[in-house]
Amino acid sequence: ILLGLCLFGLALVAKAEPALLLAEVYRSELDPADYLVSEKLDGIRAIWDGRTLRFRSGNEVKAPAWFLAGLPKRQLDGELWAGRGRFEHLSSVVRKEVPMDEEWREVRYMLFELPDVPGSFENRAEGMRQLVRETGTPWLQAIEQFRVPDRESLKIKLNEIVRAGGEGLMLHKADAPYLTGRSEVLLKLKPYEDAK
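Predicted structure:
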């Protein structure tokens, strides 16, 4: 019985939800010039610990061996993504117990954080771009980060992304260290959340 309880406990630990940074909703009184901005992808959050790819829930993503072999042996945080407007298709691909190679060829792992790198998010964003260049894996990409000078420019960029089929924007405080939990260092902005 004791062995059974220990094994059950280990199974629970293996599926524990990882500590992640979670976004707050953007409020119009915040200055977007303090943030790096990126498109909010309609993908599925995935965390790579250098050996195993996991969903936000802690459950393992059953990705093909070749997909995982192309990832560096370090911590990564990002989204599995198959393009704008393809969330349902992506979800059916990445949640299969037995991955299908031809379906996974459409999937990209889009980086938006390097949990093991100290310093500011701006430094980590540069680190992500450098890591992608060094790795040379086509399905590993860094989400483009850019700056906007003011609220009006942010609104223009939001409208541009949405017109092109995107979901919205993410704003990550440029000088923020890596944090976990829900925090205003990471904000999401969608059209219906725009508080003028």
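Summary: The longest strand covers residues 181-189.
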